[in-house]
C-alpha cells in the first residue's frame, strides 16, 4: 500500500505516521512490522530491548487496521496515535510481557496487572513493541548497571546512551521505535535524551500516574514521553497523562493543551531565564557553545533572555543523594523472595526466613542498588534522620523557593541538560560520584516537582556528539515547555537543514561479525 | 518454659503502685481495605481477598479508604479527642513475611486523633478517667501460621503459612497515657477500659468488635514503682490479650510477677510478653527497647489526610448516644434501682430489655423475664442471653397470655421451652401442648360441686363467713383438674355458688 520503503517509514515522526495511518496511506501492521524488522536488524548492536513483543504488537496493529478499513463510528473514534507503535521502559509493569526493572531479582516475573499508562496505551490502541533496557531499578546514568548488559549509544556504539532510560532513548534514536515511555527520578528521561539526540520530557510531578511504575524514589519518580520531536512528546503525554484514582499524588488538572502548545509556533515576548548555576564551569566547551547558540536563536525569535540565580542548587545533588536512597531503601524492601521473583536459599546454615531474604537480596541486587539501599538505610536511622533525611528535605524546600524566585523573573528557564556529551562505556563505572554528577542539571526539577524538557541542541564541536538543551517551567505549566521547545526545535532544524538524527551514523544490520568494534563495555 | 516467681497480689499491692498503659487495636468493618479495593472480610479462603496492592506487587500505590478515615474520626470523637486538621501516614520499616511490602503504612508522629479521655465506670460505680494519648490509623499485617513446631511459634517451626486476607485491613490503634492511681483496682480497670473501648466502637458501628476474631486486640503495659515514687518503673508489654477476662488476669499476673522481680533486687526487663490462657501466665517474648529502629519517614506515596472542621462537625452530629450516657438514661426511664440496673448490665441483657420494652412490655415485666427465666436458661446453655433465641416479641406474647389468664407462670416456662425448641409461637405451643388454663366454666362447676359435696362442713364454714376455709375447696378443684384451672376463677365460682360476697 505504502510508497515509502521501510527505512523511510521508520524515520517518520509519530505525528507523521499518525497522519499517514489516518489517511490510510500506510497500515499499522506495515509500520509495526517495519519497526520489528529494524529491531531485529540493529538491536543486537544497540541492546535497547530486553523483550520484544512482536505477536501482541502485530495483533493490536491488525485490529487498528481492521477498524480503519471498516470505517464508521468506531474508526472515527480511534485515537490519533492509534496504530503508532511504542516501546516501554522495563520499569513499567505490563500484562503479557516480563517486567524485570533491569534486575536479576525480577528475572522471569510477569506482572498480574497493567500500569495505568499501559492501560491508556492499550485504550489508544498503540502497539507495544517491547520493553527497553535500563539501569537496574532505574539507578544510574549510563544503563551500564542493567543486569542484562549495557545499551549502546547509536551515535557511537562505544559510548553510553545515558541512563537510567538508555534503552528507551537509544531505541528511539536508532529508529527502533517512534516513541517510548521513560521514567525520570533525577534525569533518567532527559539525560538519555540529551546524549542520544532525542526529545525527553519529565512532566510535572503528578501529571502522569505512577501506578505500575516500579518505585525507585516515590516523591521524585515521574513517567514521561521519549520521542524524536517535541510535538510527538506532547501527543504522547496527552495519551498517558491525566488524573488516576489509583495514584494519590496524581493531579486533577487535565493537561490537555499540550499538543496545541507545541503547535503555537512563537515565543515573542516570552522571558527565558538562564540559570547562572547550571552552565559554565564544569560544563564541556562544546555543550556551552551549543547552549549559547540556542539562546541566540530564541533571542532572534523574539524572546527576552534574562539571567536568574538559584543559589541553593549547589546543595541539590547532595540532598538528592539522601532523599532518593532513603526512599529506595524502603521501596525495594519488598523484593525479598517471599512472594515473587528470585528466591535464593543460603548455601549452608539454618534455613530461616531472614537468611533466605538476605541470600536472595545479596544475589539478586547489583552493586549500585545495594549501595543506595545501604546509604538510604543509614540516612533514615535513628539518630541520623534529622541530620540527613531531615536536612535534605529542608534543602528541597530551598530549591523550590529558588525556582519560585526564578519564575517570578522568567516564563521558562533554560540550561544544558547534561554537563557533557556521552562518555565511553566503562569510563565512570568505578567512580560513582563522577557518574552522579551527570544529573546535576536535571535533579533540581525532580526536587521541586516541576516539568523539564530536553531537546537536541546540536553536536559538540570537539566530539561530534549530541548536546541536550533543557527547558524548565513552573509546576502544571507543561504546555509552556512544549511551546518553547517546539519553536527552538524548528529554529535549530532550519539551521541544520533537517532533524539532528539525520546526521547520526547509519546503523546497519551486521553483515560481518561486528562485535570487535563494539566491545568497549566493561559489564 | 521456666516458671516465673510471683508475689501474692495483696503483697504486691502493699509494696508497689502499678502504672498501666494500653494499646488497643480496633479492626474497622469497612467494605474494603485501608489502601486497596480488596474486600475486608473475615474468615474467607486464605489469600482470596487480596489484590496486587495487598500483596506488595512491584509498582503498586496505596489509596486511603475514606470510610476508614471517617470511622477513625468517629472513634476519636467518641474518645473525646481532638481531630487533626491535617495528618500524614508514615512507613514503619521492618522485614517480616506477614508484611508484604516489608514496611507497614501507619501514622507515626501525626495521628488523626489525640488528647482525649474516657471515663470508666467500675463495678461499684466509681468513675475512673483514662487519658487517651492518641488514636491513629494503620493497616493490619497478614496472618502467619507456623507449622510443625511444638509451640506454634516461628522458632522451631518446619515452615510457615501466610494468609494475606488480613493484610491491609484498616486498624485504629488507641494508645492511652500512663494510667496512675488505679492501685489494687488496676486489673478491674484494665478489663473495664477495654470493655468500654469495645462497647464504643461497636456502638459507633465502625467495628464488628468481636474480640475472639481479633477485631479488638489489646497490648497491656504494666510497670510497678514503690509507693510514693514519681518515676515509673520499667514496663513489660503483654501482647494480644484477646478477651476481657484475659486482660484482667494478665494485668494481675504481671503485677505479681513484677513485684517478685523487684523484690529479688533484679531490674525488670523491658520486653514483650506472651499471654497463655491455659496457665494464666505470661512468658518472655522478645526484648523491646525504645531504640527499636523502624526508620520511620513520611509515606511519599500518600498526600496528607485533611479533616475540615465542617466534616468533623458533620460526623460529630451523626454519633450515636455514648454508651455510658445511654445507660444513665435507660435506668432513669425504666425506674430500676442502681443494684437492679447493674445486674441487668452485668448479665448483658440491657439491649434485650430495651428492645422488649419497645415491643410493648413494661419495664418490670421485661426485667422479670430476662433476669429470671432467660438468664437462667442461658447460663445452663453457656451462651449469651441475647443469643439464646428469645425475641422481644416472644416475651410480649407470653406476657399477654399470662396477664390474660390463658396460662399461668408455670405454664409460661413450658411455653418458652417450646419456643426455644422451635415448636412455634407461644400461642401455637399453648395449643399443641394443651397447656391452656381451663377457662370453660362448665367442667369447673362440676368439679366445684363435687368438691363441695365431698366437704360439706367446709362449705358450711364458708357460708358462715370464714372465707379462709375456701383453700380446701380450691385445692380439691385444682386436684381434680390436674392444675389446669385458673385458681382465681375457681375461687370466684365457689363464692358465687355459695352466695357469699368475696
Structure described in brief:
The complex is a heterodimer of chains A (523) and B (502). Chain A is of the alpha/beta class and 523 residues long. With 502 residues, chain B is of the alpha+beta class.
Structure description:
The complex is a heterodimer of chains A (523) and B (502). Chain A has 18 helices and 11 strands. With 523 residues, chain A is α/β, with parallel strands linked by helices. Chain A has 2 domains: 6-244 and 257-312 and 398-502, Amidase signature (AS) domain (Amidase signature (AS) enzymes); 321-397, no CATH class. The longest helix of chain A is centred in the C-terminal third of the chain and has 22 residues, at 386-407. Chain A is globular and about 70 Å long. Chain B folds into 3 domains: 9-315, no CATH class; 321-433, no CATH class; 441-498, Arc Repressor Mutant, subunit A. In chain B, the strands form 4 sheets. A 9-stranded mixed β-sheet of chain B has the order 2-6-7-10-1-11-12-13-14. Chain B has a 3-stranded antiparallel β-sheet with strand order 5-4-15, with no helix packed on it. In chain B, 40% of the residues are buried. Chain B is an alpha+beta fold and 502 residues long.
